[in-house]
Amino acid sequence: MDIPAAPHVLPDTCDFTVFGGTGDLALRKLLPALYHRDLEGQLPGDYRILGVSMSDLDADGWRDQVRAALRTHVDPTDLYDGAIDRFLGRLHHLRLDAQNPEDWDRLHALLKDRPNPEAAVRVFYLAVAPRLFGAICQRLDEIGVVDEHARVVLEKPIGHDLASAREVNDAVGRVFEESRIFRIDHYLGKESVQNLLVTRFANTFLEPLWSSHWVDHVQITVSETVGVGGRGAYYDHAGALRDMVQNHLLQLLCLVAMEPPTYVGRETVRDEKLKVLQALKPMTPTDVDHDTVRGRYAAGLVDGEPVPSYSDDLGHSGSRTETFVALKTEVQNWRWAGVPFYLRTGKRMDRRVSEIVVVFKQPPHSMFPGAEGATPPNRLHILVQPDEGMRLHLTAKEPGPGGYRLRPVSLDLRYAAAFDVRLPDAYERLLMDVIRGNPTLFMRRDEVEAAWTWTEPILQRWASSPDRPKRYAAGTDGPTAAATLLERDGRTWQEPDQ
């Protein structure tokens, strides 16, 4: 078949508007990402970045704030005074009170204040609370700045359950067509995650092994050493299941389990991811009790330093919110039937790591009688962060005479070393995809709602259960019940250095 050429081209003109322009996400991730793309000459020749916030800063005040953020969040080797000044010259700030029509009129005037404004691609990045998504989109429509070149970016979470997700999607969908709504999950912009598709579908030796015939089980881990920090109010309402599992971990699961698309582009990848979500084994109350573990960090040591408990971080002890989740699920289709997928995520863990581990089955027959040494199963470790790459664990014979001494060895691919280039931050790739209009790495509405459909029974069972999250000391690998979840199946969690 003929594979369509990529239709996503860089526009000549772009206005990139960030609602929440003085917030942590904008200063820590979005603006440094745009600076890097400007440094590489990849942004449109005529572009502007408009910061919208409730702050009383004028344009110069916001530029000073952004300059400080760049010096904090960009590697010093990538900071050049001329490049910084050029980038800051593209920045404008507008104080906007959502209830004041005059402020929206000023935004309209600013967006129209350019030659041939109808030809400009307008990106509206909503780095604000999801409850504001619908109202902001409606206002943008009312002031006449939403046209066929406009697109909107939504940060997670999209709602806090299925009903609220549908409300958000309905409200935004009344203004923007689905093809112009970009629901962002920064994990999908990481090089190792994108390379998972290439590893699976561009290497013929691996794909035939990628099924229940040869895979014993799959583990997906996203662990953090930090606590809730300044996000306590949000996090206590969300918890680890909503904050991480419903989006990040399920998206990683989809890329591991999806069928080969006809080609990688536009809707084909998202179609296959949706099929995986729809094939997840539904969680009954009995399944939730048996196959999920929730925990909450207590005081402990992280990197040798004492850290407080979750209750101390919140300032009260009445919360039932989980900071750790481990669960077992299954993709009920022809390829994966019978293969367990184990997911875990937590805060204040012993290490910061995001990793996918595909554990293959043992050889069906032992051919080396009397062999010495352990023969652990072959494993493919896909390292998402902090060091992106892959590690394939094999069994080899130790050199020397006198019989077979078997030992595990690994083949390592570290992207930074293999390609000797700076690895762009995930937001750099995703923001460029938004500007070009490429939705491949963004979540579609039906994906979001399918993920909530699967997740919601877990939330409902937990809410009705008298059990509280199990305590685990900060700086450990989570509650002991998480280890038991695998041990009863004769398995163990695979750690990065194993």
TrEMBL record:
Source superkingdom: Bacteria
Residue ranges of every copy of the Glucose-6-phosphate dehydrogenase NAD-binding domain listed in the record: 18-195
Pathway membership: Carbohydrate degradation; pentose phosphate pathway; D-ribulose 5-phosphate from D-glucose 6-phosphate (oxidative stage): step 1/3
Residues in coiled coil: none
Record-listed NADP(+) binding positions: 156
Catalytic reaction annotation: D-glucose 6-phosphate + NADP(+) = 6-phospho-D-glucono-1,5-lactone + NADPH + H(+)
Enzyme category, top tier: oxidoreductase
E.C. designation(s): 1.1.1.49
Pfam families, alphabetized: G6PD_C (PF02781), G6PD_N (PF00479)
Residues in Glucose-6-phosphate dehydrogenase C-terminal domain copies: 197-494
Record: residues binding substrate: 186, 190, 224, 243, 347
Function: Catalyzes the oxidation of glucose 6-phosphate to 6-phosphogluconolactone.
PANTHER family on file: GLUCOSE-6-PHOSPHATE 1-DEHYDROGENASE (PTHR23429:SF0), GLUCOSE-6-PHOSPHATE 1-DEHYDROGENASE G6PD (PTHR23429)
Family: Belongs to the glucose-6-phosphate dehydrogenase family.
NCBIfam families: zwf (TIGR00871)
The protein's name in its UniProt record: Glucose-6-phosphate 1-dehydrogenase
